Amino acid sequence: MKAIVCLKYGAPEVLQMTEVEKPVPKKNEVLIKIFATTVNGADTRIRGAVFPSVFNFPVKMAMGFKGPRKNILGVELAGEIESIGENVSRFKQGDQIFASTGASFGAYAEYICLSEKAVMTIKPSNMTFEEAAAVPHCALAALHFLKKGDIQKGSKVLIHGASGGIGTFAVQLAKSMEAEVTGVCSTSNLDLVKSIGADKVIDYIKDDLPKKGDNYDVIFDTVGKGPIISHINALKEKGIYLSAVHLELPRIIKGLKTSLTSSKKVIGGSAPYTAENLELLKNLIETGKLKTVIDKKYTFDQIVEAHRYVDAGHKKGHVTVSVTDKNE
């Protein structure tokens, strides 16, 4: 089968298409023919070894010093189950699914084997494979952090990076929780953020960013830009600052100090992904409360160009990659 391998860290050109052995499912696994995957910030950071300085050594110790040990990248996918192991009961041959592979990676390939207990469920009936493939990584992260925000009906929620991969899902999820949502984005993305449900938008190029006294219940930072103190000051008492980005040490220290010495909370870290939350997202999609915003679509042999585009830092929503045609 064809796969994209990353044998060393570096620019997009380190990615190479090659032939690898097609996997065979174990007793508790399913073999999935992958129709679509994505290129997101997680993929490009791993490929380029772009890790926060404080975590650089431990991350490389875990992943590989010269290149990723698991050299087929890709953290999310949509496809069809081609065969199942003898002990599998949750899925059957022919099921159309979408899934997160998480730290196991492997979605940049024509086939993958996943445990039936993986973060995987039946694909939403009202989504294409490309749309569904873009859901697991960013939407699960957005859902995890917004749950931590204890959002109630009428809560004032600000989402910084509202036009990005996590941000576009976060706006819609916060609205499904009946929050009053303000999105922060650039001038060119104002209409997009309004179209997915934001009640207000802040153009960070022209307008003032959140400031002391704005009294937000929750501020969700999906990009990690700007001083953390400005976000904290814009929270009301007992407000919550959520960070979906890995923080540098000074921001971590400031966050801990805030949580320990005030009524405000700073919550960060990695988001655990679960099949139950993916099923919840599927239900929101099928009831029309959540959709995927796709910026650009690429074919499998254009993976280098897709990584170059995401590296440029101007991605709106998601970049999808068609791996194999459903009719093949």
Please write out the topology.
Blueprint: E1 2-6, E2 15-19, E3 29-39, H1 41-48, H2 56-63, E4 76-84, E5 96-100, E6 111-115, E7 119-122, H3 129-133, H4 136-148, E8 156-160, H5 165-176, E9 180-185, H6 190-195, E10 200-203, E11 216-221, H7 228-233, E12 235-243, H8 249-261, E13 265-267, H9 275-286, E14 294-299, H10 303-311, E15 318-322
Parallel strand pairs: 8-9, 8-11, 9-10, 11-12, 12-13, 14-15
Antiparallel strand pairs: 1-2, 3-4, 3-6, 3-15, 4-5, 5-7
Helix pairs in contact: 4-5
Straight-line N-to-C gap: 13 Å
**Rg of Cα set:** 20 Å
Count of discrete domains: 2
Tally of alpha and pi helices: 10
Give the low-pLDDT segments.
none
| CATH topology grouping of the largest domain | Quinone Oxidoreductase, Chain A, domain 1
Number of strands: 15
CATH architecture of the largest domain: Alpha-Beta Complex
Main β-sheet description: 7 strands, mixed
> Percentage of helical residues?
25-40%
Task: Tell me the name of the CATH homologous superfamily of the largest domain.
Answer: Medium-chain alcohol dehydrogenases, catalytic domain
Order of helices and strands: EEEHHEEEEHHEHEHEEHEHEHEHE
Average pLDDT level: 92
Shape: globular
Strand percent estimate: 25-35%
Give the class-level CATH name of the largest domain: Alpha Beta
What this model shows, in words?
This protein has two domains: 2-135 and 293-322, Medium-chain alcohol dehydrogenases, catalytic domain (Quinone Oxidoreductase, Chain A, domain 1); 138-267, 3-Layer(aba) Sandwich (Rossmann fold), CATH 3.40.50.720. The longest helix is centred in the middle third of the chain and has 13 residues, at 136-148. Helix 4 (136-148) packs across helix 5. The two termini are 13 Å apart. The chain contains ten helices and 15 strands. The model has no long low-confidence stretch (mean pLDDT 92). The chain has 328 residues and is of the alpha/beta class. One of its GO terms (molecular function) is oxidoreductase activity. This is Zinc-binding dehydrogenase. It holds the Pfam family ADH_N. InterPro entries: ADH-like_N (IPR013154), Chloroplast_QOR (IPR052733), ER (IPR020843), GroES-like_sf (IPR011032), NAD(P)-bd_dom_sf (IPR036291).
